[in-house]
Amino acid sequence: MRFDIITVLPQLLESPFGHSILQRAQKKELVEVHVHNLRDYSTNKHKSVDDYPYGGGSGMVMQIEPFASCIEKLQNERQYDEVIYMTPDGVTLNQEIANELSSSQNIIILCGHYKGIDQRIRDVFVTKELSIGDYVLSGGELPAAILVDAIARLLPGVLSDETSALSDSFQDGLLDAPIYTRPAIWRGHVVPPILLSGHEAKINAWRDDQQLKRTQERRPDLLND
Ligand code: SAH
Predict the structure, then answer these.
(1) How far, in whole angstroms, is CA 75 from its chain's centroid?
(2) Which of 8, 137, 138 to mutate to test the pocket of ligand 1 (most atoms within 8 A of CB)?
(3) 6 and 36 Cβ atoms separated by less than 8 Å
(4) What would the pLDDT profile of 7-43 be if each residue is shown by its tens digit?
(5) Taken in order 49, 41, 44, 128, is the CA torsion positive or negative?
(6) N or C: which end of the chain has fewer CB within 10 A?
């Protein structure tokens, strides 16, 4: 799967994809992440990509043309399933959306800055608008990295144990069960004995029960859904 991320701050996206699972996924050619510097598409001699808002008010607005020429260049090279704008007024990202997007081949992600991007980019090019939560960040790069991570780890072969993404929180509408590793006793705190019993069916039943309890306590809204 291929991601093309358009940003004024490509440096911000170097680290999130340069380590661990996402780095390995790229080495294994399961995931490609291409970061495009929006300023390279500016025709302005100062390479600026923003301007004052029509109607006045605070903050700068990202202009149409650099985004348009980068998106159109990419779309001439291959077919894209989605052009996604990361924005606080988008639909809140959740596991279901990540699952759906993981069946795509090619996705473009637009990162905003300042006040955001000219509405006409959204009207003309954007097919999906996603938020990572009800708070405002200074740019779309971290949200874009979150989106890529959430999708990429679902692709076959990316996680070493393919079943592990399926047993994570939200996949079955429930939160995950508590987890433990050695030592079995730490400062008097013991691991639930059932996990040491070796009895797989009982362990699974315990985990199911814990998932339900945890979801009831912490996220009853998930059970109502
Ligand atoms: N004026 C906008 C906020 C702009 S923040 C508003 O009030 O809705 C600048 C950029 O950061 C946005 O264009 C977006 O790309 C990114 N951003 C900020 N918060 C975000 C969030 N919660 N989810 C996704 N992207 C976000």
Answers:
(1) 22
(2) 137
(3) yes
(4) 999 999 999 999 999 999 999 999 999 999 999 999 9
(5) negative
(6) C
Report the run of H or E that residue 23 belongs to, with start and end: helix 20-27
Average pLDDT of the segment spanning 171-186: 95
**pTM across the whole model:** 0.96
- What does the pLDDT look like over 52-61, one tens digit per residue? 999 999 999 9
Residue 133 Cβ contacting ligand 1 at under 6 Å: yes
Q: What is the pLDDT of residues 98-114, one digit of tens each?
A: 999 999 999 999 999 99
Domains and CATH numbers, the chain: 2-152 (3.40.1280.10), 169-224 (1.10.1270.20)
In 3D space, the residue among 106, 116, 118 whose CA is nearest the CA of residue 68 turns out to be: 118
Structure tokens at 9: 């701050």
CA distance linking residue 170 with residue 175, whole number of Å: 6
- Which residue is listed with tokens 């315990």? 206
Q: What is the pLDDT of residue 171?
A: 86
CA of 205 to the centre of ligand 1 (A): 42
DSSP characters for 119-137? Answer: HHHHHHT-SEEEESSSS--
Which of 67, 83, 87, 93 for a ligand 1 pocket mutation test, highest count of atoms within 8 Å of Cβ? 87
